[in-house]
Amino acid sequence: MRLPDLVRYAFRALTDRKLRAILTIIGVVIGPATIVALLGATQGFSSSITSELNTLGATTIVVTPAGRGATITQLTLPQIERIPNVSVVVPFYLLSGTIKVAGQTQSVQIVALNIADLRYILPGLTLQTGSTPTGDELNAADVGYYVAHPNIPGAPNISVNQVITLSIASGGGFGGFGGFGESPSSSSTRQVSFVVAGIYAEFGQSFFIDPDEGLVVPLQEGEALTQSGDYSGVMIVAKSIQAVAQVQNDVESLLGSNYRVLTVSSVVDTITSVIGSFGSLLASIGGISLIVAFTGIMTTMFTSVTERTKEIGILKALGYTGRTIMTMFLFEAIMIGLIGGVVGVSVGSIISYFLTSLFAVRGFTAAGVGRFTRAGAPGGMGSATFGGGPTTSLRVTPAITPPLILLGIGLAVGISALAGVIPAWRASRLQPAEALRSL
């Protein structure tokens, strides 16, 4: 029997029993729709986060003290510089402070480093206006775009040469740097004033520091603020992306277990692993619905064979072989799976776009890497925002790829074919005399 004839026969059999066919197809649709929607959304999140992180210092490694007695001093730097494939070593101090803007208190990040080395850490960062303070200007700072342009109704913008006053917690540390840093040892605060030397242009996301919502001051100022020669950490720039893993291993071997070594690639691997496991768990839910569809298709096909016993007897009397009869009924089951798979993939694709828009990630900043807030959720625990700038959205596009589409359709067709095998085999085994006896 030719393929066009099989298609026409299967389509006619389905249209003769429209309600049953529609209900069976709906049962098939649920499986691929669930799988495509959940896998597409989770893979989209994974790809978007990975892509975002890979553009934010892919060759940068951050090292911070993490154990009792661990310190990073000027004596530590030459040891790190001697590691092969290390391009630049940038020590830094990191503190937290608050600033009053239009009667509201805002948290800001203060980063102290050799400002000339910022070009290695954030190569695209430029000044919108003003200049970079030198090491001699200890009370001068460059401020981020959203610090200078707070997103607060009625709040004035900050201009170059303006004096701003920050409240800085005694004891210095900042616990919001990706989980690094020590908590302040005292709740007392002190007032520190800075002259705005320059204002950075809007930069966007960064992995290790947040130039849009912080202050950058010379390294010597950080030492004066913390009253310590121990750095908060050091940023190491590898010569290439391929060398990052080896440099990371060498740093860990050099410094030991009392230091935390973080790279973009390690964060990417962790995120990918977690999202992958979560996606697999969600996809298993779609697998359960496919089992339900399997049962529904088999029930429908058995009912169809029972109702069409006379038709089968006539076909056999006309010379149709058992193999041809089996192919006809099997193709009918495949047709149900094909229609259900195509509709399911389409529905799942639409749902995946809805899911990614519903759970759009906001607050994706360096200081809060790995700590996100859902779009529209109020800031609070898990919020990664600083200053008065608006939180930024991580744009997520569902990963509706050809392999995923083929997977959804293939599963639907495969399950339908398996469900139709036994009923089709039973139809092929009917004897003409027995079948015609029911006429």
UniProtKB/TrEMBL annotation:
One GO CC annotation: plasma membrane
Main location: membrane
UniProt GO molecular function: transmembrane transporter activity
Domain of life: Archaea
Keywords of the record: Cell membrane, Membrane, Transmembrane, Transmembrane helix
Domain MacB-like periplasmic core: 22-253
Membrane topology summary: Multi-pass membrane protein
Parts of the chain that traverse the membrane: 21-41, 281-305, 326-355, 404-425
Residue span(s) of domain ABC3 transporter permease C-terminal: 284-432
Pfam families in the cross-refs: FtsX, MacB_PCD
The keyword Cell cycle is assigned to this record: no
InterPro entries according to UniProt: ABC3_permease_C, MacB_PCD, Macrolide_Exporter_MacB
Localization: Cell membrane
Family: Belongs to the ABC-4 integral membrane protein family.
Protein name: ABC3 transporter permease protein domain-containing protein
Taxonomic path: Archaea, Candidatus Marsarchaeota, Candidatus Marsarchaeota group 2
